[in-house]
Amino acid sequence: MLKHFIWDFDGTLFDTYPVLVDVFVELLEREGRTVEREQVAELMAISAKTTYDTFDVSEAFILNYKQQKMMIEQEQSEPFLGIRELLEALSTRGATHHIVTHRGTSIHALLAKHGLTHHFQDVLTAPDGFARKPDPEAVTYLVNRHQMARDETIMIGDRELDVLAGHRAGIKTCLISNRPNETVATYTVTSPGRLKELLLT
């Protein structure tokens, strides 16, 4: 039985990608560049760095993007439908929850705004200095710190780098993706809304 849940944040717990994509596209258009929103969305689903590199944006652009994104997402980004209830149900069973994310400390304001902070025992963000996923360093740290049994622990994320981090740490994994592709994930679901079927049955 799964007892310990290590979550990614963007695209897994919170529906933040629409804001990320909209802000990035708007800033590119201000520079007179034409870009397909779908292309940006696909790149963002890989990583922000991949998106920056693909469009060869400046450090000033990245800083402006992060500032604009932070302001807008506090107003517009919300948990995926059913996530709040899923966390409650798992917590009631005695589960522990943790987050490993590449984003900065803005995550804390989003969790607090939606009343979800109390569910998470640990939230590891970029400033904590762990190697970025798919390196398993952050996941392994959580497993060891909280003495989680590996066969009772799962990493859940929407990108292959999330499940690779969990796989390399020796725990179970779940990939959220509606795109058929090869994966090392133990389980796959097509959307965050389908997690309930997997985790509560």
TrEMBL record:
InterPro entries found in the cross-reference section: HAD-like_hydrolase_sf, HAD-like_sf, HAD-SF_hydro_IA, HAD_2, HAD_sf, PGP-like_dom2
Pfam families, per database record: HAD_2
Species this chain originates from: Exiguobacterium indicum
SUPFAM superfamilies in the cross-refs: HAD-like
GO cellular component, one term: cytosol
A GO molecular-function descriptor: phosphoglycolate phosphatase activity
Domain of life: Bacteria
Gene3D superfamilies linked to this entry: HAD superfamily/HAD-like, Putative phosphatase, domain 2
One of the protein's GO biological processes: DNA repair
Protein name: Phosphoglycolate phosphatase
Lineage, opening ranks: Bacteria, Bacillati, Bacillota, Bacilli, Bacillales
